[in-house]
Design brief:
It contains 8 helices and 11 strands. The protein is of the alpha/beta class. The chain has 2 domains: about 120 residues, Periplasmic binding protein-like II (D-Maltodextrin-Binding Protein, domain 2); about 90 residues, 3-Layer(aba) Sandwich (D-Maltodextrin-Binding Protein, domain 2), CATH 3.40.190.10. The chain has a 6-stranded mixed beta sheet. The chain has a 5-stranded mixed beta sheet with strand order 8-7-9-6-10. It binds phosphoribosyl ATP and magnesium ion. The site of phosphoribosyl ATP has 23 residues, from α1, α3, β9 and α6.
Length: about 210
């Protein structure tokens, strides 16, 4: 009742979140990158962190296994965001959701000519909506990672993926042809927890809000 659990993923989200947690007076007692523990204690006896896959964070919070968490907009769109309170854009782990094609593929002409495109992506929901809005016919192929490979081996004409530096696209002779949306990570809170544990959650939310501004 008076304890709270925060769900985070390792890697870029944890790296960008640590300063925000610190602003709220919370510090993990172990580094999740080197520890194999999935539950990490913090300097606050009533606050613990659970380390899960980035795409699983909304699920833990939705079911109340975690009271709050941090997840990318990409992940939240695919999850659907049901029953999640999303009070704050943390402006961290920023990148862009983009359509990319092999250097030699004339995407613009293909679209103009009404060609049916095969698109490989982990982000089915986002891709479906984007191409429907554009009136482009697509066959979506679901992948779980390394989307950049798909056009190189003939699995797809195009991909929908996240781009930050653009180095991965460049290294695989792909070019971004369309920006679908800007992506950043948001704080998500379980609705019931927000009511029941407001005395603990509100100060964390306030500290995050101040730290982000
Ligand atoms: O890695 P895992 O399969 O466990 O899950 P994940 O990839 O969902 O998690 P993680 O930790 O890699 O990403 C967590 C969140 O970070 C994502 O949900 C995004 O909101 C955000 N983010 C920000 C990114 C990137 N930038 C990013 N560049 N997530 C992934 N990438 C990947 C991208 O998919 C591509 O393969 O990095 C590659 C491109 O990077 P550049 O710099 O070469 O353009
Ligand atoms: Mg990853």
């Amino acid at each position: 009742m008076t304890d709270i659990t925060i769900a985070l993923s390792k890697g870029r989200i944890f790296d960008d979140t640590a300063p925000l947690l610190k602003a709220a007076g919370i510090e993990a007692l172990e580094d999740p990158e080197s520890s194999r523990k999935l539950i990490l204690a913090t300097n606050q006896p009533n606050v613990r962190l659970v380390i899960v896959r980035a795409s699983d964070v909304p699920t833990y919070v939705q079911y109340g296994a975690a009271d709050m968490g941090i997840a990318g907009k990409d992940v939240l769109i695919e999850h659907g965001g049901a029953e999640l309170y999303q009070p704050l854009d943390l402006n961290i782990a920023r990148c862009k959701m983009m359509v990319a094609v092999p250097d030699g593929f004339d995407y613009e002409s293909a679209v103009q000519q009404g060609a049916r495109l095969r698109v490989a992506t982990k982000y089915l929901q986002t891709a479906r909506e984007h191409f429907a809005d554009k009136g482009v016919h697509v066959d979506l192929i679901k992948l779980y990672g390394s989307m950049e490979l798909a056009p190189l081996v003939g699995l797809a004409d195009a991909i929908v993926d996240l781009v930050s530096t653009g180095n991965t696209l460049k290294a695989n002779h792909l070019r971004a042809v369309e920006e679908i949306m800007q992506i950043s990570s948001r704080l998500i809170i379980n609705q019931a927890a927000l009511k029941l544990k407001q005395p603990i959650i509100q100060p964390i939310l306030d500290a995050f809000t101040d730290a982000v501004q």
